[in-house]
Specification:
This protein is of the alpha+beta class. The chain has a single domain, classed as Hotdog Thioesterase (Thiol Ester Dehydrase, Chain A), CATH 3.10.129. The protein contains 2 helices and 7 strands. Strands 1-2-3-5-6-7-4 form a 7-stranded antiparallel beta sheet, with helices on one face. A hairpin with an 8-residue loop joins strand 2 and strand 3.
Amino acid sequence: MDQTDIPPDFVPAEFSPGFLDHGGPYYLKPGSDGAPGIVGLHVMTHHINYQNAAHGGVISTLADVALSHAVYDAQRPRLLPSTITLTTNFLAPARLGDWLEAEVALDRVARRTAYVSGAIHCGQTVIATMSGVFAIRPEA
């Protein structure tokens, strides 16, 4: 899969510059009916480890990106999330060229914290599950 093979319903995420520029590029597919969007990642050479699989840190970062983006996009004005806890369970490897999709559910959004969970898929295979708790504050 090269950049021209990104599914047509995904657009470049254009997250703020910095660390995420090094781990991506990430893509977004808008959610429907108020559901969180899906974050996509094409596994490239800078993502793989010595076993030619996506490094665990890449999968964990994708989990954090997807979970926090769902919180960020949950309300207007937007919520500004900071990760309190992140749990990632690795179930299967992702290989060079794989297209990954991280789907998230907002489990609970309270006044100062948000609870989210989800899974990362490669086709029909679940490669990881994840959950997180985020401190939140409204965007100024």
